[in-house]
Amino acid sequence: MASAVLAVQELGDPEALDDLASRVGGTWHRAVSGAYALYRRAAEATAVRELATAHLRAQPDARLIVLGDLNDEPTAATTQILSGPPGSEIGTGGFDHPDQGDAWRLWNLAPFIPGDQRYSRIYRGRKELIDHILVSHQLVKPLPTVRTINQALPSVTDDPHQHTGESGSDHSPVAATFDLP
Questions:
Q1: Nearest residue to 40 via CA among 83, 73, 10
Q2: Which keywords appear in this protein's UniProt record, sorted alphabetically (predicted)?
Q3: pLDDT tens digit string along 93-121?
Q4: What DSSP string describes 11-61?
Q5: Could you tell me which of 146, 159, 78, 148 has the C-alpha nearest to residue 120?
Q6: pTM (predicted TM-score)
Q7: Is the pLDDT of residue 5 over 50?
Q8: How far apart are CA 66 and CA 176, in angstroms?
C-alpha cells in the first residue's frame, strides 16, 4: 500500500504581501492585503487539493496525509477546499456510512483534538486552530489519536515584527498517532 505526505507551508506569507506592496506601490490597506492573502490561500489549497485528488485517483487505497500551517481555521473555505467532496465529515451522521466521495475525501483530524487543546496559535488573545492534519480514508479508521503540543505561546497581533528576535514559535505543533496494520 502506498503512502504519501503533502506538506503545505505558511499560506498567506506576510513577506510576499510586503514584496507585492513594494512592486505595486501606493498605500497598502489591510483589506487589500487580506483579500490578497485569501486569494493566495484559496489558490494554494486548490493546487494541493488537485495533487491529492490525482494521487488518490491513481492509488485509491493510498495512505495520504496533507498537513501544515493553513492560516485558516477548520471551517474556513480554504480548509474546506482541501477536504474535497462533502458528505461524511467527522462529527456528522454520514461519517460511519461510506459514500462515493470517500475515495477522494480528506478528513480534517481537528475534531479528534481534545477541546481544551484545540488551538495551535493565539491571535489577539483568542485561541485558534490554523495548523491542520488531513488524511485519506485509509488513515481515518481506526480513529487516530490527535493532539496539539501546547506550549507557552505568545499572543500575536497584526504587527509581524512584534516578536522579532524572540526564540520559539508562535504555533504549537499538531501531532497524530495512527494504528497501522
A1: 10
A2: Endonuclease, Exonuclease, Hydrolase, Nuclease
A3: 777 777 777 778 899 999 999 999 999 99
A4: TT-HHHHHHHHHHH-S---HHHHHHHHHHHHHHHHHHHHHHHHHHHHH-TT
A5: 148
A6: 0.78
A7: no
A8: 12
Domain boundaries, the chain: 3-177
Average pLDDT, the chain: 80
Using alpha carbons, list the distances in angstroms from residue 119 to 52, 111, 155: 25, 11, 12
3-state secondary structure of 73: coil
User: What is the distance between the alpha carbons of residues 111 and 145, in angstroms, rounded to a whole number?
Assistant: 11
Cβ atoms of 56 and 136 within 8 Å: the answer is: yes
Q: What is the DSSP letter of 136?
A: -
Whole-angstrom distance, CA of residue 144 vs CA of residue 142: 6
CA separation for the pair 97, 148 (Å, rounded): 28
